[in-house]
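Interim report to the steering committee. The following record documents the input for AraC family transcriptional regulator (334 residues).
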Amino acid sequence: MAHTIPMRFFRATVESMVKRGLDVGRALRGAGLDWRLYAEDRARMTPEQTTGVIRALWEQTDDELLGLGPRPVARGTLRLAGLTVIHTRDLRGALGRMFELSSVTTGIRWEMRADDSGRATIGIADPDVRLDPFVAFAMTGGVHRFARWLIGAPITLLSVDFPFDAEHLADEYTTIFGVRPTFRASRLAMSFDAALLPMPVVRDEADLKRFLRDSPGVLFYAQEQATTTAARVRAIMERNRNGPWLGADELARRLSISAPHLRRLLRAEGTSQRRIQEEILRDRAVEALVHGDEPIADLAARLGYSEASAFRRAFHRWTGSAPSHYRSTRIRKP
């Protein structure tokens, strides 16, 4: 199950677009989102809803960087770049081809270096280039997501550096990239194990078509490879979807640590087993309300609530809104 996206993170992401006069409200309505949710910090979005909003903004700007890059990027550029890159031999060649295309299409030059410690670092070649935060996020996430998709294997990031300040959103960036970023860095960069560079590209044009179908919402999905204790605990709890909630002792056993040590690790990451459980319930509820027609009373019972009223109170605590506000944003199946 995909993590939902906090509205405050999405709002910060599109802040530059609002300042430049893009009609984000129209894009939200076009994606079926209740405008009242936009101003609520606790509100959540699914990646599919985010995809709908960004695509609506593409329609407004006819620019895949939404008018925020050094130069306009015609719609369809990502698809053409993908068609070129999937015919490279390995990850090293794919990244090199991506960077050549970026220089030509966006005016943004990337470089890659591998050091003696076995770490590969890719980043913006010119440290004086100051990118809009949305462009920096989109390009970093895009390169990482596309690269791991190309080789069909996780690429665990060792570091991510952003040249802007978003410390108040650090937890969400950590969820998306799998590592806590460094903000206010001298340049945009990320690093990973250089041993991955010879990994072969395993995708074809049919695969690319399916990948693009989920774009750009794929940028907002949580990193698949769990690297924090909280992420590993969540992954274990989600795999046990049809059974009772696992206790601390069982979770610790599966992680090969003691229960007290597990609690200490979660506390150091600013969370707890109970909080993770609540986040899973919240995301399951939002997904069900947005994607299905299940009566709220039945949804409440399925999530373990003896009364619908208790579920409604919990949902309001999680999101700041009533379940009915999310039901009104339901994504209709074709």
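The chain has a mean pLDDT of 87. The committee is asked to note this result when reviewing the revised timeline.
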